[in-house]
């Protein structure tokens, strides 16, 4: 697969790099931020901006490691890393202090590296703060982007410009270019330690008589296991090995497994969330599931060790009801009761994964989609709030991706679309294309 372009945020300490980074990678951070020890690993994050995918590098994390003593050395190191690895650099400055000597030093270093550099001045929380922007042109640059990482102001414009020219995912998977069936379906197997992830992978590989070449993920420790079933290729992504590798994190094992799960989920088309039938579903599981769902990945809940549970029909239904009750973010979840040990219903997982994957295989006809949204908004006009009395207008709708299924609606006040209205439109799309059990992601973007 083609490498994603790398964007690096650099700048002095305290200008707001982490804040900006968190804003750009917001979903993921929300779940990993409180995992001690893990943040240090967190140098690279794949993010998506509209239909562009790129990797963002968090140089903020290096600071603590380069020592507090030498600011200059730390800057050199950061800039060196940025220049060596990044395709584009966001140079973040502090709009409260104005440019200082260190900033000019960084700018000089960046010039020598000849990378495209975007100058973003942070902490411009209101238009009245913009006066200071002129001072930053002293750095000898043509354009300065005012942003407020803390409030989100200006970040859209910055990202629009920074990602200009990056390959569009909307074209990457167009049918002319690749044979759909030759793309393996990537299935992440996630769950808390000891639920039976390794047992499941072992069972699968045994039964399908495939050479299970376990290729350890290079940077992320997700194990990739290719499997072929009924003429279709799959890649199992699992995080089972973490117990051995995680001595340093033993007390945070569960939380660490969440972090690992996330990297597997991000790479996957479909997610199998494994539970232990003797334990039920935990908050941790729900967190992971909700992360997967929001990232647009369909979920299969595999309740493992079913062989240990008494088989009265009531137990089964009770279990299901409990999951359904707590699984609020999705439509009725898909639940399969399995035994990784005996192999009971394990092959069914593949059929389900394949059918979920194929549900979003198609490309929606754009005219049809626009008509659908038009008639939905005609039926129920969007409530106008925080638009300064103006009417909320939707201009144009387009599908930007299939796996996950993402639709972008261009409108005049994207931030004013109420979540309940978003949910209404999401359901309209879901119904129209029978997208049950797969996440439908609707994004609103500004067009004046
Ligand atoms: P880093 O050291 O460059 O990663 O900076 P941080 O992201 O840790 O931010 C440093 C400080 O600036 C924190 O106290 C943030 O709350 C604050 N900060 C970050 N962004 C903004 C912003 O947009 N506006 C204001 N007013 N403060 C900000
Ligand atoms: P992982 O940490 O999620 O990879 O879990 P393992 O695959 O290492 O399994 C943890 C323990 O649960 C092992 O002792 C397995 O033998 C046991 N186990 C896994 N699947 C099943 C199952 O379906 N039934 C029973 N009874 N035990 C199981």
UniProtKB/TrEMBL annotation:
GTP 1 binds at residues 11-18, 58-62, 122-125. It holds the Pfam family MMR_HSR1. Gene3D superfamilies: 3.30.300.20, P-loop containing nucleotide triphosphate hydrolases (3.40.50.300). Residues 5-170, 185-361 form the EngA-type G domain. Associates with the 50S ribosomal subunit. GTPase that plays an essential role in the late steps of ribosome biogenesis. GO terms for molecular function: GTP binding; ribosome binding. It comes from the Bacteria. This is GTPase Der. GTP 2 binds at residues 191-198, 238-242, 304-307. PANTHER family: GTPASE DER.
């Amino acid at each position: 697969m083609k490498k994603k372009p790398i964007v690096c945020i650099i700048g002095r300490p305290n200008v707001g790099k982490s804040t900006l980074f968190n804003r750009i990678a917001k979903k993921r951070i929300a779940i990993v931020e409180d995992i001690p020890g893990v943040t240090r690993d967190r140098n690279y994050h794949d993010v998506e901006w509209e239909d562009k995918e790129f990797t963002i590098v968090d140089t903020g994390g290096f600071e603590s490691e380069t020592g507090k003593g030498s600011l200059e050395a730390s800057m050199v190191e950061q800039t060196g890393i940025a220049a060596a690895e990044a395709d584009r650099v966001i140079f973040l400055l502090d709009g409260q202090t104005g440019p200082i000597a260190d900033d000019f030093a960084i700018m000089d270093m960046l010039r020598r590296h000849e990378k495209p550099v975007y100058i973003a001045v942070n902490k411009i929380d209101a238009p009245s703060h913009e006066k200071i922007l002129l001072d930053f042109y002293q750095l000898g640059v043509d354009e300065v982007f005012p942003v407020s990482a803390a409030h989100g102001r200006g970040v859209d414009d910055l990202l629009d410009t920074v990602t200009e020219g990056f390959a569009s995912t909307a074209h990457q998977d167009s049918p002319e270019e690749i044979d759909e069936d030759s793309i393996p379906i990537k299935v992440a197997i996630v769950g808390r330690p000891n639920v039976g992830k390794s047992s499941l992978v072992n069972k699968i590989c045994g039964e399908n008589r495939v050479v299970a070449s376990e290729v350890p993920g290079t940077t992320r420790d997700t194990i990739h296991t290719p499997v072929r079933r009924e003429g279709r290729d799959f890649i199992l992504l699992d995080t089972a090995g973490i117990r051995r590798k995680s001595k340093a994190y033993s007390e945070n094992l569960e939380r660490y497994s969440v972090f690992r799960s996330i990297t597997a989920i991000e790479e996957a088309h479909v997610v199998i969330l494994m539970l232990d039938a003797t334990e039920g579903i935990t908050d941790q599981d729900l967190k992971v599931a909700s992360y997967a769902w929001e990232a647009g990945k369909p979920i299969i809940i595999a309740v493992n060790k079913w062989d240990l549970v008494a088989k009265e029909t009531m137990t089964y239904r009770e279990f299901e009801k409990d999951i359904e009750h707590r699984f609020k973010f999705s439509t009725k979840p898909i639940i399969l009761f399995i035994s990784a040990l005996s192999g009971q219903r394990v092959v069914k997982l593949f059929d389900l994964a394949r059918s979920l994957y194929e549900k979003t295989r198609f490309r929606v006809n754009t005219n049809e989609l626009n008509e659908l949204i038009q008639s939905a908004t005609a039926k129920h006009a969007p409530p106008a709030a925080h638009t300064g009395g103006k009417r909320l207008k939707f201009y144009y709708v387009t599908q930007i991706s299939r796996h996950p299924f993402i639709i972008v609606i261009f409108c005049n006040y994207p931030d004013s679309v109420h979540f309940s209205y978003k949910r209404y439109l999401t359901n309209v799309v879901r119904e129209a294309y029978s997208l049950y059990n797969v996440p439908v992601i609707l994004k609103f973007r500004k067009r004046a």
